[in-house]
């Protein structure tokens, strides 16, 4: 079923995939870190925050607002200070581990890589993990929201039981008010720093997450039914939350995003911290647990 879904979307989004796969992109003063170089990482202390769940929600067959949850992270989160740069991504291309960028993407050490799909981001995370010996991955939507702090936009919109369409109109109008026509990949720092010291969150580059699109259903009594999970569509976070098909590099051309499409698609990664400590001394010696 997922294959059929993707084939259907491929026909609708053919315009967005017309770019060549192996044409050399524009290059501007490439100054990239060494093979063993580590990106700048921000550590965010454990804490709690309010999170509007992602996805589509219905109650008794009618559109419903997504739940607002109180979430807590019990461990610090380690996330890149900047988005992955186009020059660093180009190193992965040169190693044969990542798909080439399209011809109109400028490669520079001070600018984010854009026009990359979810699979491109996954490939880069795997390559960087192998190069550095550390485990890098895309953040979940919850992790991205936690890191974004005050930059995270709550996309909750009240549902009018008499006219559910008003909810979609209201959301579209709110998203359309933002200037999404500027697709320039600006140097890092253009969109400022949040309270955690992370740069360019919620600017004009939407960032891929690992979270799949989910349709959740409850009955009249509020009892949850079995959700429908579609991992062919992933959440991209930026000036607003977007749901984008995983193989799309340019959501503006493909028309595959729900609501107003992202101006650019890029990403930053989370670094998993593997710290080990002695827990107890048992009969068979020390038992070690991962923290």
Description:
The chain has helices at 2-12, 86-94, 118-132, 141-148, 165-176, 251-254; strands at residues 26-27, 41-44, 47-52, 56-59, 62-64, 68-73, 77-80, 106-107, 135-137, 206-218, 228-237, 241-245, 265-266, 270-272, 276-282, 285-290. It has one domain: paralog of FGE (formylglycine-generating enzyme). Strands 4, 5, 10, 11, 12 and 13 form a 6-stranded mixed β-sheet that branches. The chain has a two-stranded parallel sheet with strand order 1-8. 20% of the residues lie in helices and 27% in strands. With 291 residues, it is of the alpha+beta class. The longest helix is centred in the middle third of the chain and has 15 residues, at 118-132. The model is unreliable at 1-35, 166-176 and 276-291 (pLDDT under 50).
Strand fraction band? 25-35%
Query: How does the major sheet shape up?
Result: 6 strands, mixed
The secondary-structure element order is: HEEEEEEEHEHEHHEEEHEEEE
CATH C-level class is Alpha Beta
Number of helical segments? 6
Structural class by SSE content: alpha+beta
Low-confidence stretches: 1-35, 166-176, 276-291
Q: What is the molecular shape?
A: globular
Q: Give me the CATH fold name.
A: paralog of FGE (formylglycine-generating enzyme)
- Return Rg in Å: 20 Å
DSSP helix fraction: 10-25%
Work out the count of structural domains: 1
Task: Compute the average pLDDT.
Answer: 77
| Counted beta strands | 16
Q: What CATH architecture label applies?
A: Alpha-Beta Complex
- Separation of termini? 39 Å
């Amino acid at each position: 079923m997922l294959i059929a879904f993707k084939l259907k979307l491929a026909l609708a989004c053919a315009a967005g995939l017309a770019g060549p796969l192996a044409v050399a992109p524009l290059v501007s003063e490439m100054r990239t870190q060494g093979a063993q170089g580590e990106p700048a990482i921000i550590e965010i202390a454990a804490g709690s925050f309010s999170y509007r769940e992602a996805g589509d929600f219905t109650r008794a067959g009618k559109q419903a607002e997504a739940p607002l949850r109180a979430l807590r992270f019990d461990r610090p989160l380690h996330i890149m200070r900047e988005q992955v740069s186009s020059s660093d991504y180009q190193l992965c291309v040169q190693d044969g581990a990542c798909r080439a960028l399209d011809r109109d993407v400028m490669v520079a050490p001070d600018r984010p890589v854009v026009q990359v799909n979810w699979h491109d981001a996954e490939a880069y995370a795997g390559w960087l993990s192998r190069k550095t010996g550390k485990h890098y991955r895309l953040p979940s939507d919850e992790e991205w929201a936690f890191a974004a702090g005050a930059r995270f936009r709550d996309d909750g919109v009240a549902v009018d039981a008499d006219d559910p369409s008003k909810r979609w109109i209201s959301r579209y109008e709110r998203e359309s008010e933002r200037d999404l026509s500027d697709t320039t990949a600006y140097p890092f720092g253009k969109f400022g720093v949040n309270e955690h010291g992370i740069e360019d969150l919620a600017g004009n580059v939407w960032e891929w997450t690992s979270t799949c699109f989910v349709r959740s259903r409850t009955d009249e009594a509020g009892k949850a039914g079995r959700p429908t999970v579609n991992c062919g569509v992933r959440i991209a976070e930026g000036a607003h939350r977007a749901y984008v098909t995983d193989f799309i590099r340019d959501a503006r051309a493909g028309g595959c995003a729900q609501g107003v499409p992202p101006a650019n698609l890029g990403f930053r990664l989370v670094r998993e911290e593997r710290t080990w400590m002695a827990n107890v001394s048992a009969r068979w010696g020390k038992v070690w647990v991962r923290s």
